[in-house]
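Appendix B, Record 12. Input sequence as logged:
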Amino acid sequence: MQIYLDYSATTPPRPEAIAAMASVMKDSWGNPSSLHSWGSRAATVMETARMQVADLMGAPADSVVFTASGTEANNLAVMGVAQQYRKPRHMIISAVEHSAIAKPAALLEQWGWQITRLPVNSYGQVNPEDLARALREDTVLVSIIYGQSEVGTVQPIAQLVDVIEESDHLSKPLFHSDAVQVLGRLPIDVQKLGVDLLSISSHKLYGPQGAGALYVKPATELLPLINGGGQENNLRSGTQAVATIAGFGVAADLAGQELAQEQSRLLKLRDRLIDRLHDHPELMLTGHLQQRLPHHVSFYLPHADGKRISGRTLVRQLNLAGIGISAGSACHSGKLTPSPILKAMGFSDREAQTGIRLTLGHQTTAADVDWTAIVLRQIVDREMASQPVMARSGYQ
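Logged structural output:
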């Protein structure tokens, strides 16, 4: 039995998206910037996809800028704002951002920018009052992740935007949110949220890898990262990957049609998995129980040593059993490092090396959830029993 439970890493492209891509590569392969009929066919395909993606987040079609990934969209948001200023300014992010935001912010910091990293509570949520206190007259951008990929916690984005709108500062910073994990899983209406910028990705909603987009609120000024022919309203030069974008559009259209039903189904499966494991003493839930992504379950091992037994240990063992999950910590140059997300939430270095993430999707069934819970229990019991008693007792 093979069970894939790593849908937050990537999703299998839908047959409809694959078919759309094949059709484009066969019949609509022209350059969408060309004026002849071959170019017009490609441009029509691309603009149809733009409308499909825009509709999924309640945006006007001309506010969608196609990129090659969610990471590029995040970088365009951060650096596209920052490049407009000759002198360093102030930027606010959360302590639980994806590296696609955290690393550009760190780079700006090296260039003299002041970066405020808002703390989070033990669930991984930002306190709106902390944002209000952090705002300054020279704050030009606030970027808060919508749905945290590692622990699943959802941030109160509309409330955070309201904090900016209600502040007494003369200059209001732009608000950006990384919604890569949210689009297609929760309803999004960018106009109701009030955000200025929002990043999304195709391969998180059953579209192809290699396509992303940035919502840019009308009249919002950005400078491009890539200069050239001026495609994507001068914000992302380069001939667009029409086939990939077409697959993105089809996936977005289908996600919108199925959103309510699929969200409800995933919520039931998510809570079923949590219920099957909540009483295990060596598996403690991370993230917020209710205010979390509907497909997302994450744990840490409170008594594991974090070295011989870590999140990666469980990933390997479950893989041998035919179940695909991911670890909550990253490996750099062969060295296991504590998850910065769990560290920001108050976990120790040892605990922050033991996180795991199980994320559900279209192909997940109740039987998959039940079998995974049984296998995970057995593996955790076996691994913890093999840990030296002295080490285990030291972590009580």
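The chain has two domains: 3-9+260-385, 15-254.
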